[in-house]
Design a protein that fits this description.
single chain; Double-stranded beta-helix; 6-stranded antiparallel sheet; 5 helices; 19 strands; globular
């Protein structure tokens, strides 16, 4: 194996974290800001890119790290190494409520494609790169743009799904239609395209957007029930407006709503 062979355990229900157990000389790379805690004796190092390739030179490192800007991530990642004897543990936390999904890349022929902000951490040696969409419709209307992340190698990687995660294994020719924001990741053989919802009423009044993601097998798809964009929109809609009042407060309808839901302060 070119990737380090790590052991892990996932804790929690709604706000999970993954605990990685490192043998001597083993390492793990993580997205900046995902670190939670670690045992004494683990060395932390900030690196360009994912550090999966050796002897690529300074320019190669810059180009590799620069690709991460296209996915909206930091130029840098953080590597954690166990340089001492005995086992050491390091943990990484979910950024918001959801599930951490363990991806064994050997089960997916060494490649897994995921949305830009899904990656959490991976065994040292796993390459975290970018995947360009070759279809205009998918790039413009797919919700993820023309660029997604790709994880390559023969080690373990961990991605985060918002809310509850569903795993679907599609047979050859089997089609699954998904909200574009609900895709966590998919295997390389999945045919991913965009389909127009259709119908004037659906388009204008449906409230579900104009396009579906059309996923055709064979392959495996991971779906999330709560994309971060949906969560953020709900939070913003409920946030206090100017003057400290939420939407509807102070109006007739807002007052009736307050009485109905028990928020009748006098």
């Amino acid at each position: 194996m070119t990737s380090h062979e790590i052991d892990y355990k996932i804790y929690g229900e709604e706000m999970q974290f993954v605990e990685i157990e490192l043998d001597p000389n083993e390492g793990v790379v993580a997205e900046a800001g995902s670190f939670m805690m670690m045992d004494d004796g683990i060395k932390m190092e900030t690196i360009f890119g994912d550090g999966s390739q050796k002897n690529q030179g300074f320019l190669g490192s810059i180009l590799g790290a620069g690709k991460r800007i296209l996915t909206g991530e930091s130029l840098f990642m953080t590597a954690f190494y166990n340089n001492l004897g005995g086992k050491r543990k390091v943990s990484f936390a979910s950024p918001y409520p959801g599930k951490i999904v363990a991806i064994d890349l050997t089960e997916f022929e060494g490649k897994f494609i995921c949305q830009k902000d899904a990656f959490l951490c991976a065994a040292k040696g796993v390459s975290i790169g970018i995947e360009f969409s070759k279809r205009l419709g998918r790039g413009l209307f797919g919700g993820e743009g023309f660029i997604m992340q790709k994880l390559e190698g023969d080690g373990m990687a961990f991605v985060h799904a918002g809310g509850t995660m569903a795993k679907r294994v599609l047979k050859a020719g089997e089609i699954l239609k998904v909200d574009t924001g609900c895709i966590v990741g998919l295997t390389k053989d999945i045919d991913y395209d965009i389909e127009f919802v259709g119908g004037i009423k659906n388009t204008i009044f449906g409230g579900e957007g104009l396009f579906f993601a059309k996923l055709q097998g064979p392959g495996t798809v991971f779906i999330q029930s709560l994309p971060f964009s949906r969560l953020a929109n709900r939070v913003l809609a409920s946030a206090p407006k100017e003057g400290g009042k939420s939407r509807g407060e102070g109006s007739i309808l807002g007052g009736i709503g307050d009485l109905l839901d028990g928020d009748n302060r006098f």
